[in-house]
Structure formats: C-alpha cells, structure tokens
Specification:
heterodimer; A: about 260 residues; alpha/beta; 10 helices; globular; B: about 290 residues
Chain lengths: ~260, ~290
Amino acid sequence: MIEVKNLNAGYGKRSALWNIDFSIPLPAFVGIIGPNGGGKSTLLKSILGELTPLTGSIRLFGKPIAEMKNRLAYVPQINSVDWNFPIRVMDVVLMGRFRPNSWGPFYSKSDREKAEFYLNAVGMLAFSKQQIGELSGGQRQRVFLARALAREADVLLLDEPLAGVDAGSGERILSLLSEYQKQGRSIVMVHHDLLTASTLFDHLVLLQTRLVAAGPIKEVFTLTNLQTAYGTDVSILSEMIHKLGQTPANLSDHP
Amino acid sequence: MMTFLILATAGLLAVQAALGGSFLVLRRSAMLTDAMAHSLLPGLVVGYLFSGSRSGPEVIFFAAVSSFLSAYLIDFLNKFAGIWFEASTGFVFTSLFSIGIVLTTALGGNIDLDADCILYGELLYVPFRYSSTQSWYDLLPLPLWNQIWVSFAWAIFLFFKWKQLKIWAFDEGFCRNAEIQHHSIRRSTLVLTSMSIVVGFDAFGAVLVVGFFILPAATAWLISKTYKSMLLNSIVFGVGSIALGYVLALAFDWEPGPSMVCVAGLNFMIAALRYRQKKSGSGFRPTH
C-alpha cells in the first residue's frame, strides 16, 4: 500500500503540488500522468525522498518512506551523472547489487550473474565492457534501468524511462517492466504517452498540480478526468476513449 | 641506501596522493588539496608550540586537523551558506594560511619555520631524521615511518570501502538510494587525504604535494576506461615521475622535489595533447 496524505511539495517556497491525497494497494503498476508542469516528477521525487514535502506525509507498506529506502529502486535523470567517468557498463549495473552490510572490494558470483541477466534483459549485454560515456543517450538509459532492476527492490520508480529511447527498445523495456511487475513487485512510473498509458498500467494517478483522480485505471481513465487534467480538444480525447473501448490491444502499436 | 630511503618515502607519498587525488579529481574538487595543503599551517604552529619540534606526532595531529577543518569549512560555506565553491575555497585557505603566517611571525625567532621549507620541503634531509628513541623505531627514518602508517590506513580504507567509494565517486544520488553514508565516505576520504598531505608536506612542501595529488590522477583520468585502471594508472604515473624526476635531479643537479613534479606535469601535458588528438575537434574533456 502506498499512501500519500495531504502532500504539498515544491522547490523553495514555490509549491508544485497541492493537497495530494490518495492511496493505492500494492503490488500494482502505477502510472503518474498529467500535462507538463503538472507535478509528475515532483510527486516521484517526494516518494523517493529526494524532495522533502512542505506538508503531509508519504507512507509505504505502512511505514514512513525514510525507513523504506532499501525497498525502493529508481532510475536517475540522465543528466545527473558525469559521463566521462572511467567506468564500464557492467560495473554500473553491479552497483545495483550493493547491499549496505556488504564489505570488501568484490561482488559475488551470483551478483555478477544477476547483473548480466538484467543487462541482457535490457538488450545491452553486448556492451558490458564499454565505457559508459561511449554509449548513446538511449543506451545509457537502458543501462541505468538495468541497475535499478538489479536491485530487485519491491518498488521501482521510473521517470519517463522511454524518453530518448527508440521504438524497438521502448517496446522491449515495457514488456520487461510487465514481467517484473508480474513477479509481485510494484512499479510507479511517470509517463506522458496517454495511448500506451491506457493499456500499460493497472492504476493511475492523474495530476494537474492538484490531484484530478487516482485509483484503478477504469475509474481514472475517463473523458471527464482527462479533460479536467489536459483541457485539450474534446474530440481527440473522446476518439481515444472510443478506440480504447473497441480495440485496446492495437493501441500500443501507435507511437 | 640514502637514495632508497628518499625514493621509498617519496614513492609511498605518490601512492597515497594518487589514490586521494583520483577521488578528488573524479568528484571535481581537485583544488581542495591545494586549500588543504595551505591550511595546515596554523595547525603546524599550534603543534610546534605543544611539542617544540617540527615533526612530532603532535605536529602531525594538529596540522591534519587544521587541514581537514579547511575542507569541512569549504563544504559548509558551499552547502549551507550557498557560497560558490571556488569562492569559499579561496576564502578559507587564504585566511587559514595567513593566520598561520601571522602566528609564525608573532612567535618571532622562536620557531624554525621559513617560507622555503613550507613551500619546497626538505626531501634530501629525509635519511637523516630519526626518532632517536633508541628502539626498533630507529631502523627507518621518521618521515618514512609516517608514510608507512598513512599508506597502511589508505589500504585498509580502500579494502573495506571499495564499492562504496566507487558508487560515491560516480553517482552521489545513488548513494542515498543504496543507503550508503556518502557524507561519511567523503569525510573519511578527506581525513586520509589531510593525513597524506601533512606527512607529505614534511618532505615535499605544500606546493609539490598538491602537484602529486592532482597531476598523476588527472593524467590517469584522461587515458583510463575503468575505475580500477584509473587508480592503478595514477599510481604508475606518480611513482614513475618520482623515479625519473630523481634521476634527472641527480644528473643535472636539480632540486629533486620540483623536478619530480615537472616530470608529472610533462606527463599530463602529453596525455592531454594525445587526448585532444583522439577527440579531434571536441577540445578538452567537457564537463557533461
């Protein structure tokens, strides 16, 4: 269960999120959607504990998030890292296997196997000996995803993991995430593509600086809610909902 | 034998400086070593007042504390008061260095500290400085013992914290996620660095110690693909510059400390030019 109570969060004194209240039972595949500047990343950072809420609280499995950090994994924003750092792809993924009680300079054989497994899962095993700076943006994103997956944490937090990733690898990542979620783990993911959102997630949080709706996707993904959040042209939205009702399986093929 | 003692002392310093310098170069705070090397002066004077000698354990302790405090103060001004990193560095070390100079002159002729030995050290006197306790400790000169103890501390730290150091150096944000106390890792690194600076300062002087912290590490950074190879390369460059610099000093009758640093500087220039050629057009390594 993830519970957000009366959350106000932002940067400095400027609030980016107002009075957010919701709770979603876990395990679940939760999408955070909403227009640009709607506070999606702010909510994710608050859950992660990177951003201290101005008011309110967030609890995970009944405990404050500060105590639950070891059960979270996340993919950092790609520009927060020094890409000239002399480190190989494999070593980055191995970091995901670090445990606070481990000591000594070496990772175990099983840690290496796990790292290889997840590196393979994101389609980057062939690059394992390359320096991280030699990769393209999308490839780096996949390596960091592999590191987060390798933590095998209960809750995986992602901020638009498909940004800058080509269509082929994007599909691969999405199917990987579904697989990960089926193992009884949870994923909370900021997402901007409404078409894929409608089939990918089982729960949604719809934000427009305030909470528009949160809960099971069938209750949240409605025309009224989307209009409230996006205020976009009604016909596009209604067409989409219509399509969704008829052929949900085909929607994920669209870009 | 004397050559061996000098080279062993300088070589151990080069190894420590390569390790400490690598982390600081990777964390983009290489010039902290400069600040720390200058800021040890007030501690040196206080230690001298306590012990009456220039190389006793009291001196090393106070100098290391004062040098570590400068790094801490710089971080503090930077993080909590929001002062630009370069500005707080400049402020802290010039102030502490000046306080040290004022203290030195205030004590007048009572203290055997002059600008030359602060800046250039007394490498050639290393083989003549013994503890004179009439025990097994007299087997090796004092500066060499100091280097051995600090190298030992580095080795233990690296062995137990290797993974944490690597994660911290690469991605501080991930430390929070992986429950690594990155503040304590940084602090421990700086404590060891200040110890290396203080024991190295004794033989090399402030300016040359800084050279050994930054140059081999920066050279290794330019040519290395992995973290381990960067550490090893910086040790190779550091120790290599010591050996070659010493040979040159003997051959041409130069001052040994500065000629070692010259070799290290030359090494860096060659690596930088080759790096530029390899990445032709892109200039020096960009920050992102």
